[in-house]
Amino acid sequence: MNPDLLQAIQTNLLSPAVLFFLLGVTATLLKSDLKFPESLYITLTIYLLLAIGFKGGVAIHSAGLAKVWLPAVVSMALGAMIPLWVYPVLRHLGRFPPVDAAAISAHYGSVSAVTFIAAVNYLKESSISHEDYAAAFLAVMEAPAILVGVLLAKLGGTSGGDRKLGIVIHEAVVGRSILLLVGGLFAGWASGPKGAEVTAGFFIAPFQGVLALFLLEMGMVAARRFQDLKKVGVFLIAFGVLAPLINGTLGCWLGSLVGLSLGGCMLLGVLAASASYIAAPAAIRLSLPEANPTLYLTSALAITFPFNITLGLPIYLEIALYLGGSQP
Which residues contact 327 (CB under 8 A, 6 or more apart)? Predict the structure, then answer.
C-alpha cells in the first residue's frame, strides 16, 4: 500500500472527529451508562444540517449559479443512478427479496451529511481546498435515490411501494434533512457574505465542537448495531465496504469530468460512497414498511459509516488524485 495513504489513514484515525466516534463505540461496548437525550440528538442534527446548508448557500452566492448548476445536476443524477446498479447486485448476487434490495439501494444512493462534514474536516486538516458550494451536492442527492428505491420496489411487485408512493415523495422532498439543507442553502444564498459575517459566531465558531458531540453519539448508535452484524451475513458485510469504494470512485470520476478541484472530486466521491441513516430510514419506514430494518440500518450505520470515516476518507482522496483532480 502507498506509504502516503497509510500516513493519511493514521492521521485521520487520530483526528478529533474520529476519536470522539471511537469513544462512543468504546462506551457502548464497555456497557457504559453514557446516553444522549433524544432531544439533544435532534438539536445537534438540526444545527449541523442548517450550518452546512447555510455555509453552502453563502458559497453559491459568491460563486454564482452559472458555476454551480452543472456539478449539481451531475450530483443529482449520480444519486439517482446508484440504486439502479445496487439493486440488481443485491437481488441476483445477494438473493435479497425485492423489497429489501430496494430499501438498501435507496440508502446507498442517498447520502450521509455527517460523513460529508467529516470529509470537509479531513480536507481542512490536510490543507486541501475545495469548492465551498459543495454542500449543494449534499442537498440535491438525498431525495432522488429514495424515490428511485421506492420505484424499484414497486416494479419488483411490492405492494407497499405502490400504496404509499405519494407519501414517500412528500417525505423525501419536505422531510427534516432536505428541508433544513435546502432552507439553509436558500438563507445563505439570499443573505450572502453579510449573512455569514453576522452568524459566524453561531454557525462557524461552535461547529467543530457540535460535530464532536454528534459523532460521540453516532459511535454509540453504531456500536449498538454491531450485534446485528451476524444477522446480515457475510455478503452484506462485504457489500457495505465494496459498494462505497465503487460508488466513491464513480463520484470522483464524475467530479473530475465536470471540472471540480481535487477537494471537490473527493467530496463528490464521499457523498456517492456514503449511505443515509437519517432521511432514508424515515422515508423507507413509511413507503416500504415490510422491508427489514436490520438489513438497511445495519449495513448503512454499522458497516459503511464506520468504514468511511475511519479508512474511507484517505482512500477517496487518493482515488480523486489518481483520477486527475487538481487544486483550484
Answer: 128, 129, 261, 262, 263
pLDDT of residue 161: 46
pLDDT digits (tens, 9 = 90+) for 305-328: 999 999 999 999 999 999 875 444
C-alpha–C-alpha distance, residues 28 and 70, integer Å: 43
The pTM (predicted TM-score) of the whole model is 0.85
Predicted local distance difference test score (pLDDT) of residue 175: 67
Which residue is listed with cell 484515525?
Answer: 13
In the chain, where the domains are located: 3-322
CATH of 3-322, one of 1.20.1530.20, 3.40.50.150, 1.10.10.1400, 1.10.3980.10: 1.20.1530.20
Query: Which of 67, 19, 3, 49 is CA-nearest to residue 213?
Result: 19
| Bridge partners, 326 (sequence order) | 261
Give residues with Cβ within 8 angstroms of 64, minimum separation 6: none
Q: Give CA–CA dist 309/232, Å, rounded.
A: 21
> Which phi and psi angles does 175 have, rounded to 5°?
-65, 165
Spatial CA neighbour of 95 closest among 239, 208, 278, 191: 239
Residues of the chain with pLDDT under 50: 161-163, 326-328
